[in-house]
Amino acid sequence: MDISDLRGPFSPSEVDAFLDEAIIPMRLATVGPTGWPLVVSLWFLRDGDELLAATRPTSTLVAFLARERRCGFEVAGDDPPYRGVRGRAEVVLDHNAGGSVLELLLLKYLGGTSSPLARNLLARADDEVCLRLHPRSLVSWDFSARMSNG
Questions:
Q1: Phi/psi at 71 (5° precision)
Q2: Could you say which of 85, 97, 140, 149 would form a disulfide bridge with 8 (CB–CB 3.0 to 4.6 Å)?
Q3: CA dihedral defined by 127, 19, 71, 2, rounded to 10 degrees?
Q4: pLDDT of 69-116, one tens digit each?
Q5: CA 79 → CA 37, 118, 144, distances in Å?
Q6: What residues does 12 pair with on adjacent strands?
Q7: What is the pLDDT of residues 48-66, one digit of tens each?
Q8: For residues 116-150, b (16+ Cβ closer than 10 Å) or e, as one string?
């Protein structure tokens, strides 16, 4: 990722590799009209300097992002050694790319599109909304050395 505000131990190419290899959901945080936060886990993929996800157009998340484009996100596993990437981004809702992004997400997370779950999701793919995250700042962390048994 080409981010001017990048902190932590990962270089830009290491951030890219980490995000490309992560087969875990991204946590996306936004703030609703009442001021309370909403945190949602979403499948994601990196496309150049963007992070992409897909969701239903009627979701609360889409309603919140339509009002406020700024969000926070994190990609980090739950098991040691703890490492990950978090940041701030602006989101663009792309109502034309949701179906194609959904198919790419199914390939990444399920390994294909022939499972019953994949077929069910693809049956509604024309109505999906693509979330295009444009990161503005990133922080990485890697506690592998500190948590090693050696």
A1: -150, 170
A2: 140
A3: -110
A4: 999 999 998 877 788 999 999 999 999 998 899 999 999 999 988 888
A5: 25, 27, 11
A6: none
A7: 999 999 999 999 999 999 9
A8: eebeebbeebeebbbbbbebeebbbebeeeeeeee
